[in-house]
């Protein structure tokens, strides 16, 4: 498989389950059901962090992607969304207040 073929195949995937099946990763449906968006976001973050070191060639790149997805999935097997804090909303420590004046 070439890099462009891999890219084309990845473009067709949309759900966490599709990614896990594509990369032949065994998964617990209960973990994915609760954390699917968190897993995909963490996978995306790992890809961004490792993009410069991504190997050349389709098979090597496939395996690198697989390892990063497995790592993202495993983060939520061993932990939970509240602990992992993948999304920005989890990093907000205090309620945000905004003043909107009311005038006629």
The stretches of 5 or more residues where confidence is low (pLDDT under 50) are none
| Mean pLDDT across all amino acids | 83
How many domains is the backbone divided into? 1
Going by helix content, strand content and strand pairing, the class is mainly alpha
DSSP strand count: 0
Q: What level of helicity do the residues show? A: 55-70%
| Fraction of residues in β-strands | under 5%
Order of SSEs: HHHHH
**How many DSSP H or I helices?**
5
Q: What integer value in Å does the Rg equal? A: 18 Å
Oligomeric state of the chains present here? single chain
Structure characterization notes:
With 104 residues, this protein is mainly α. Helix content is 61%, strand content 0%. The chain is elongated. 17% of the residues are buried.
Strand and helix layout:
Blueprint: H1 3-11, H2 16-22, H3 29-50, H4 58-78, H5 81-84
Helix pairs in contact: 1-4, 3-4
From the structure above, extract its key features.
about 100 residues; mainly alpha; about 60% helix
Summarize the structure.
The protein is an all-alpha fold.
